[in-house]
Amino acid sequence: MGERSEAFSLRRPDGIVAGTLSGDGRTTIFLHGWTLDRRMWRPQIDKVPGRLLMIDRRGSGESSAPADLDREIDDIDAIIDALGGEPVSLVGMSQGGRVALRYADARPERLRRLVLTGAPIDGSPFAPEKPIPIDAMRTLLDAGRIDDLRALWHAHPLMRFDGADDLRRLLDDLLVECRWGEVLAPSALSRTRADIFAKAAWISIPALFLYGEQDQPDLLASAQAVVDRNRAMQFETVQDAGHFVNWTHAAPFNARIGRWLAE
Prior knowledge:
Elements lengths: L5 E7 L2 E8 L4 E5 L19 E5 L16 H11 L5 E6 L1 H12 L4 E7 L16 H9 L3 H9 L10 H13 L2 H4 L12 H4 L7 E6 L4 H11 L5 E6 L6 H4 L1 H13 L1
Parallel strand pairs: 3-4, 3-5, 5-6, 6-7, 7-8
Antiparallel strand pairs: 1-2, 2-4
């Protein structure tokens, strides 16, 4: 994970939130997507300037705290306190970006900047062409058909990309290691709906939406619509990239977010 990396562990009332801390300078916390863990950010270690904390969100990786999307704002509060209390930046991928936007709405005074990639936006009017088949996945889980469950998610457009054999191997491992009972629990998908799409015009934190140009159309349309209403936000795409732009196109991704976070 890098020459200067060290383990991070924070005790919460219901378990541990684990992570990897590296580098020096201003702090940026990285939030991975649904069914993934902090290994998703390997291409950013030692490539993005500053003090970087990649955490395993609840229900994922080495974190023992159970999946609960509605408790993640409190987790981030506790992490910032543990790191010294200074405002931080957040980088959120996919569902991790959803969490980052919720945090920006709830705790703007604790943030410097945001980077969102492939993030769904609560309350968006743009419906996905192919939603994540949660009900079918839960049915397969209840029937003990885990291989079929993994195959169903692996075939979804969000999980598709070109090239990057190392990413393919990682995703294969993550699908095996995923705690499906947790990530498919209602708490992992949120019991509340914060209408961030409607509130986004008033979020004051500078935010960069950096998406792959081949990501899902609803995600791209939602991000563009939000940015059109907020001068503190920017929307950019990386050519020929999809949902996993931070890995498949790491060099331009790292360079752009590095400049953004340094401003």
